[in-house]
Design a protein that fits this description.
- Helices cover about 40% and strands about 25% of the residues.
- It is an alpha/beta fold.
- The protein folds into two domains: about 10-50 and about 145-360, Rossmann fold; about 370-455, ANL, C-terminal domain (GMP Synthetase, Chain A, domain 3, 2-Layer Sandwich).
- A hairpin with a 5-residue loop joins strand 8 (about 285-290) and strand 9 (about 295-300).
- Helix 2 (about 40-50) crosses helix 7, helix 3 packs across helix 4 and helix 11 crosses helix 12 (about 260-270).
- The longest helix is centred in the first third of the chain and has 32 residues, at about 5-35.
- It is globular, with a radius of gyration of 23 Å.
């Protein structure tokens, strides 16, 4: 028996044994963190989210009103706010009544953090968290263990749509410094072992390391991949350029943390021969929506109540407002998360009745505006650049209605004709009178958040 054959035979024995061990470890972990009845809670959640829309909406509304009463009774910020508006929580009887409550802005959280904390929880028992956001300015907030237990259950529920299950092998390609640092520590390496995870650092995706990771994947054969959208794209691009194709069947890929542009999806699905599922969430509020097998983004109504800040939320895009229904430690009510989207009243062909986020246009800072009020999806520009092989990297910044700066990293085959074509495409979208200043640079480093901003609008 050859060494290679012996290795494959050992792997065929070890893999199911390791998966069984990991499934048992997951059961022990969830029992310890969430209690003996966590499987029943997951089953109840599954049943509830497969009910009709009216039942789901009623469940949401009951939980929202309960949260409002708690916020008013235990948080100084909401008590002062509602008293100043002469509103009692029980005055909020239907969705349009919520409009009386001002939105929660990031600037308000930074200025009144302690006033937003519920006095029902000792501060030393709370879990401090933070997000750098697209601007890189930290936003600090607090959560508690009950919030995280439910947050994790929701991730379990929705990730199963992409084929993930407890204990099954998963490759994680991530680019957030705090998460990556934790993944490289001894404690987290032990966690990765029993969870059956492997990590690829999204901040260090050299061709050599991506090819090495692929060769390890060929032996280890993960069943799902969880990745930053941009990291997934770089990985797929490297494999495509080197004509490397997996020789095993992936169940699915979960793209998260960044906008999943159509060309990202197309390339990844071609290379890995499986469906890419878009997962939309935020560190502040958890999983917001997940794509189903039919390609629709279903809203996580178990944990969230979503509004679109628009007069016509089903046809006219607006900023997404989120009420987190589980974070009693620090209530987020009508929180302006900083993304733009539109709702859909479509009945999904997948059979699930959860409401649908019709279009997710990305960060408010990535959505361009013209003087006429027209909104232009940042993805419009990324699709224009995708086919230009002489552009290695780009970043388009809308400084004002009249000025855009375009940073370009190009190779030696870049031509004046390509330069002129790019400027023309930008002007066609934003207006002929817009000045486009092109700056050729050596590189465009990502911010500390790890999320590469290809398009930035500074127009409020």
């Amino acid at each position: 028996m050859s060494g290679q054959t012996r290795k494959h035979k050992l792997m065929s024995i070890f893999t199911p044994t390791k998966t069984l061990f990991s499934k048992m470890a997951w059961a022990a972990y969830n029992t310890y963190r969430k209690g003996l009845h966590y499987r029943q809670r997951l089953a109840d959640m599954d049943a509830r989210l497969n009910e009709g829309r009216e039942s789901i909406a009623q469940f949401q509304w009951e939980r929202l009103r309960k949260l409002l009463r708690h916020a008013y009774q235990t948080t100084p910020y909401y008590q002062t706010l509602l008293d100043s508006l002469h509103i009692q929580p029980d005055d909020i009887r239907q969705p349009r009544d919520l409009l009386q409550i001002p939105t929660l802005e990031k600037s308000t959280i930074r200025a009144q953090l302690d006033e937003l904390l519920s006095r029902a929880f000792p501060k030393h028992r709370l879990m401090k968290n933070a997000t750098g956001g697209s601007s890189g300015t930290p936003l600090i907030f607090y959560q508690n263990r009950a919030y995280w237990n439910q947050r994790n259950l929701s991730v379990y529920y929705f990730d199963r749509w992409a084929g993930w299950d407890f204990g099954e092998r998963q490759l994680i390609v991530w680019g957030s410094l705090p998460d990556v640092d934790r993944a490289m520590g001894l404690k987290q390496r032990m966690n990765n072992f029993w969870r059956n995870y492997r990590w690829l650092n999204g901040f260090d995706l050299t061709a050599e390391k991506m090819i090495d990771a692929f060769e390890q994947m060929q032996r280890w054969r993960p069943q799902t991949i969880l990745a930053y959208a941009s990291s997934l794209h770089l990985f797929a691009e490297c494999l495509s350029e080197n004509q490397l194709t997996p020789d095993w069947k992936l169940k699915g890929i979960i793209s998260s943390a960044e906008m999943l542009y159509p060309h990202y999806r197309k390339l990844a699905e071609n290379v890995f021969k499986t469906k890419v599922y878009n997962r939309y969430g935020g560190r502040e509020v958890g999983l917001i929506a997940m794509e189903c097998k039919a390609g629709r983004l279903h809203i996580n109504c178990h944990d969230l109540y979503i509004e679109i800040d628009s007069d016509a939320p089903y046809t006219q895009p607006g900023e997404i407002l989120i009420t987190q229904l589980n974070n009693y430690a620090m209530p987020f009510i009508r929180y302006r998360i900083g993304d733009v989207g539109v709702l859909s009243d479509e009945v999904c062909p997948c059979g699930n009745s959860l409401p649908i986020l019709g279009d997710l246009m990305g960060r408010t800072t990535a959505t361009f505006r013209t003087r006429s009020g027209k909104l232009i999806h940042g993805g419009y520009f990324t699709q224009q650049f995708y086919e230009i092989k002489t552009v290695v990297q780009f970043q388009l910044i809308q400084e004002s209605y009249d000025l855009c700066r375009l940073k370009l990293v190009v190779n030696d085959k870049f031509t004046n004709e390509t330069h002129e074509w790019i400027v023309r495409q930008i002007k066609e979208a934003l207006g002929e009178n817009v000045e486009v200043r092109v700056e050729f640079v050596d590189q465009i480093p990502p911010p500390t958040s790890g999320k590469i901003a290809f398009t930035i609008s500074k127009i409020e």
